[in-house]
Design brief:
Transcriptional regulator, 3 helices, single chain, alpha+beta
Length: about 60
Amino acid sequence: MNDLERKLYRIIYNMSRFRKNPTMEDLKIKTGKDGQSIRKAVRNLISRKELAWDKEKKEWRFK
């Protein structure tokens, strides 16, 4: 996991604990990165099964 992926994982995990899904704007502000690099990092986390999106409950699942 690279630095951006680790940072995104921690942000999503911590915000999800309080039943709040971070928006793209939240992630841009907290990481200082652009939307394209955030999407790429989240896709990498999902492909490695570190993160999963539960469509029914509309929340993140963690490994």
